[in-house]
Write a structure and sequence with these properties.
There is one protein chain. The protein has 3 domains: 2-155, no CATH class; 179-246, SH3 type barrels; 254-334, 2-Layer Sandwich (Alpha-Beta Plaits). Strands 8-7-6-5-9 form a 5-stranded antiparallel beta sheet. The protein has 352 residues and is α+β, with helices and mostly antiparallel strands. Helices cover 54% and strands 18% of the residues. The chain has 11 helices and 12 strands. It is elongated and about 135 Å long. Helix 3 packs antiparallel against helix 5, helix 7 (161-178) packs across helix 8 and helix 10 packs across helix 11.
């Protein structure tokens, strides 16, 4: 049934129904997406800012497609409009729809990354090591998605990606010679992400005696926070070219020790018992493996013992050691165990 008919335009019932259905479909998708993304649980997972960005993406994408379907249903040549050429050269043609394609690729990539990051952050992990592995895998996938997105956009513009890479190769070689240290950092970043020798959450000690926890790994640099809560930006090449002690590479638990000296004549078995008791009373000292005591030396003025214990809180271990020293001093005083101090005899001889 024809509702409206002119020399250039005609409207039938079927066209009107399809146009209304197209608009309603887009509206319903946007409406339910808005309800879903505004749920408290979803906002907590994605974050308020990311939820708004995803919602804006849905508004634009599904709004565009519903309007496009509506105009096409009504018989308007909307397709011809978006196919109009903006830039036309011998090698490339850019149309109006490329603007939308550009937004779709860039914003869509961001949406995928937001969801992937929310999954990685929310996924329960049995240990800090597993969290670091998940984060490394997330970063690898993130950069891979970016490469695919850029490739798709270049291809959508009509460029041959192989020709583009070949054209840039000479430039990249020249840049590599001039800023080879920066390229070395980038390559080292990929090595770190793939072999996971250093992961987010690891406690590392670098050759210059810097001890800190890795909080972020980027392609060129990594951020390490020290025990003084100072963030240090370290080039990734430092992790691949220097000797790095990774305290949490295979396990979150590390062994530490405290050296204590007691006076000669002390009951050494009592000293051993008191040292182990001091370690066991601390909540952050592991019970398995249990703390042990070694009688390490007969010193100049003391009998030297080493209390060895394991702990998972290796980043703040100095606080644990301090607590143990307080407890050891208390137990020694209660049991009349003396901690000696170096003594020297000074002899004066009269002048002859």
């Amino acid at each position: 049934m024809i509702l409206i008919e002119t020399a250039k335009f005609s409207l039938t019932v079927n066209q009107l129904v399809l146009a209304v259905v197209s608009l309603l479909a887009g509206f319903m998708i946007i409406f339910f997406s808005r309800i879903f993304l505004r749920r408290k649980r979803i906002r907590n997972i994605l974050g308020g800012k990311n939820s708004r960005k995803i919602l804006n993406f849905i508004y634009i994408v599904f709004g565009f497609f519903s309007i496009y379907a509506c105009f096409e249903s009504l018989g308007f040549e909307f397709k011809e409009f978006i196919n109009k050429t903006i830039i036309n050269t011998d090698r490339v043609k850019i149309h109006y729809y490329h603007i939308f394609v550009f937004y779709l690729i860039i914003a869509g990539t961001q949406v995928v990354i937001y969801i992937l990051e929310a999954y990685v952050n929310r996924k329960p992990s049995s240990s800090q090591i597993e969290k670091g592995k998940s984060r490394s895998i997330y970063l690898i996938i993130k950069y891979f998605i970016y490469v695919i997105a850029i490739t798709l956009f270049i291809e959508s513009l009509g460029f041959n990606i192989t020709i583009v890479i070949a054209s840039l190769s000479a430039l990249l070689v020249g840049l590599g010679l001039g800023i080879q240290h920066i390229f070395n950092d980038f390559i080292s970043g990929f090595i770190i992400l793939f072999d996971r020798s250093v992961k987010i959450g690891d406690v590392v000690e670098i050759e210059d005696e810097l001890i800190g926890k890795v909080v972020k790994i980027n392609l060129r640099t990594s951020i390490v926070i020290t025990r003084d809560d100072v963030e240090v930006i370290i080039p990734n090449s430092k992790f691949t070219s220097e000797n790095i002690t990774n305290w949490t590479h295979n396990s979150t638990m590390s062994r530490f020790f405290i050296v204590v000296g007691v006076a000669y004549g002390s009951d050494v078995r009592l000293v051993e018992k008191l040292l182990i008791k001091a370690a066991k009373t601390h909540s952050l000292v592991a019970s398995d493996p249990p703390p042990i005591v070694h009688f390490v030396n007969f010193g100049e003025s003391s009998l030297d013992f080493k209390l060895m214990f394991f702990s998972e809180d290796n980043f703040r271990i100095e606080k644990i050691k301090s607590d143990l020293r307080f407890e050891i001093d208390k137990l020694f005083r209660e049991n009349n165990v003396t901690i000696p101090f170096p003594q020297r005899d000074v002899h004066f001889y009269p002048k002859t």
